[in-house]
């Protein structure tokens, strides 16, 4: 978990996969995996939030947007 956090933080600072790999002393594929999974998690969170907002509007009598 600590390694994943370091990878995500260094990537968030704008460094390339190769730079993150070099700085943390890990394989570039490890960086790619966690960078990808963090992006997927963020996208899923946005979709969930949008769905909850839409359901809130439907619950107030608005028609669904889909």
Helix content: over 70%
Q: Quickly give the structural class.
A: mainly alpha
In CATH, the topology is named Arc Repressor Mutant, subunit A
What is the N-to-C succession of helices and strands?
Answer: HHH
Unreliable stretches covering 5 or more consecutive residues: none
Number of helices: 3
Sheet having the most strands: none
Q: What fraction of the residues are assigned to beta strands by DSSP? A: under 5%
CATH architecture: Orthogonal Bundle
Total strands: the figure is 0
Distance between the termini: 38 Å
Described by the principal axes of the CA atoms, the overall outline is rod-shaped
Radius of gyration (Å): 18 Å
Task: Note down, in words, how this protein is organized.
α1 packs across α2 (17-24) and α2 (17-24) crosses α3. With 66 residues, the protein is mainly alpha-helical. The relative contact order is 0.11. The protein is 77% helix and 0% strand. The longest helix is centred in the middle third of the chain and has 32 residues, at 28-59. It has helices spanning 2-12, 17-24, 28-59. The protein has a single domain, classed as Arc Repressor Mutant, subunit A, CATH 1.10.10.
């Amino acid at each position: 978990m600590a390694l994943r956090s370091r990878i995500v933080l260094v990537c968030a600072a704008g460094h390339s996969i190769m730079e993150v790999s070099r700085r943390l002393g890990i394989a570039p594929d490890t960086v790619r995996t966690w960078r990808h999974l963090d992006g997927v998690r963020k996208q899923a969170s946005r979709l969930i939030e949008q769905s909850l907002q839409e359901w809130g509007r439907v619950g107030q009598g608005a028609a669904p947007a889909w």
